[in-house]
């Protein structure tokens, strides 16, 4: 692996790593003023779906418009990166460097975040407590129609108590093409079938949240080797608020109404 690139999904101007591994891309740029990054509404794109697919419109852009000299690609967020040794201006955190990415990719097919564990509930019960459980029925229906060979893997995965979340990864160009060819028909079909036009912005992002499950089922179904790397946040996380919302959702049926 000689020339990997990690797209940074950002909807506002922020400090980004100066390491050559990174390419900042403006997410949901369609109809918006430029923030000085590559725009996800240029060349081949689905920028108009950003209200539903969130950072995945950036992933689609890098997949379809990857420079010829790049042999691996993936996605991180402007406030959420893989941990490493490269400095990030304006922050105390250090993020994955190009050399570290090359070294890791020489040992595995895919770099993923460390698993997020829910301990007291499954992925399905956690989603059902915090969001609309009918969303998972829609996901199953679309997978059954478009990729039925993955349905059993999806059902088994939803009964697990941990998963690789955030739509963050780095993999070879060949593997990335295979994954995105699986991911995007399903994600876009969910957008088409879901009635989201009159919903508030947080609820409208449902297809992007469901897509977080698709990386693991693709990995599991195809026997892909992975290495887990911790994720670092460039902005403080309110763990009290996040924990309180989790407990209210589980025990008092209070659905999430905002991101954390």
Walk me through what this model shows.
This protein has 260 residues and is an alpha/beta fold. It has a single domain, classed as Spore Coat Polysaccharide Biosynthesis Protein SpsA, Chain A. Helices cover 41% and strands 19% of the residues. The protein has helices at 50-53, 56-64, 98-105, 123-130, 134-146, 151-158, 173-193, 201-204, 206-222, 239-252, and strands at 4-10, 22-26, 38-39, 72-77, 80-87, 94-95, 110-113, 116-117, 162-163, 169-172, 226-229, 231-233. The strands form three sheets. Strands 3-2-1-4-10-7-11 form a seven-stranded mixed beta sheet, with helices on both faces. A three-stranded antiparallel beta sheet has the order 6-5-12, with no helix packed on it. Strands 8-9 form a two-stranded antiparallel sheet.
| Amount of helix | 40-55%
The domain tally reads 1
Largest sheet: 7 strands, mixed
CATH class: Alpha Beta
Q: What's the tally of helices?
A: 10
The rounded distance between the terminal residues' Cα atoms is: 35 Å
What is the average of the pLDDT values? 92
Provide the β-strand percentage band. 15-25%
**Which shape, going by the Cα principal axes?**
globular
Strand order of the largest sheet: 3-2-1-4-10-7-11
Rounded radius of gyration (Å): 18 Å
**CATH architecture classification name:** Alpha-Beta Complex
Return the string of H and E elements.
EEEHHEEEHEEHHHEEHHHEEH
Q: State the low-pLDDT regions, or none.
A: none
User: Which class do the helix and strand fractions yield?
Assistant: alpha/beta
Total DSSP E strands: 12
- What is the name of the CATH topology? Spore Coat Polysaccharide Biosynthesis Protein SpsA, Chain A
